[in-house]
Amino acid sequence: MAAPLGAAISQSPTPSTPSIPRTLTLRVDNDAFDFWMLPWNRPDEEYSSGVHITYGGGDAPRWARGRLSARPVCAVHSLSCRDGRLEIGQDIYTPSVPTNDPHAAPGSRPNAGWLYLSQSARALDENSLSDLTISLGVTGPPSLARFTQRLAHDAAPQYNRPTDWTEQIHFEPGAIVKYERRGRVTTLPDDGFGADLIPRASVSVGNILTAAEAGFQTRLGWHMSHPWLAESQHAEVTFMAGAYGQAIARSIFLDGNSFADSPRVGHKPFVGAGEAGVEIRYGALTLGYRAVNETRAWVRGPAWHPWASMTGGLTFDR
Q1: 165 or 117, higher pLDDT
Q2: Range 18-316 has CATH code 2.40.128.140
Q3: In this structure, what is the dihedral angle of CA atoms 7, 9, 12, 17, given to the nearest 10 degrees?
Q4: What stretch of H or E contains 77?
Q5: For tag attachment on the chain, is the N or C end more exposed, with fewer CB atoms within 10 Å?
């Protein structure tokens, strides 16, 4: 005998709500992390420090949802979706100074700081990513770069050079609009060990930075996760290496303020860089280290400037 309709309905499974992961990431860039050098030989100049806190996941920003309305919010195992990111960051640039004198030589690049808040809208597919980011912030004393550097230097004065901040890029409100496109080519399917190649290109426009960039990254790893789509949490180890080049039309950190006289040295029109790193993930926790070496950014700048990043991330579900 057939079961009553009500009984059949009561026994049918209830569809589960898809898991929408979110990730909180702290990335710290510093030339003090050049661990292959002795502590007193590490540079403290050029791009000297950066602190970036990122909250990623969930829906795209409201200003982008109309264009991305055909895509669902990214969930675990999504193959085509949308999401958003929010980041607060601070970047610090300094000239080279002697070990016993806080004053840089005449003609050196000025001190500069950039404190900003950015929001990104991303369209994600299995083999491509499109990212539009809007950043708003300030340079000059309100960027708190002088305060941050002195705080860090006071923690380990024996390894840090004193710096005079009387010459710095002045206060200026700033904006950068950046569009980035990434692809993914799988060169070795992940069956235990996997490898892929990620070419990328971007354009940035604003009074802080106007530039175009292109490069690639190759990854090799054990249980390597997808570079941007959310997957189930598991243990993995991934090694990466890559290179990129940047064509620069304007950089406020070298070219000075837009609407006022300020220290300036001018920029090189093209800068290249190489990078290598490792990332370890266990469950919800991710730890990473990346070393970068950049070519000369301005005429009298160092031929090469190495710096490194240390990253920690925590992923949690809705």
Answers
A1: 117
A2: yes
A3: -140
A4: none
A5: N
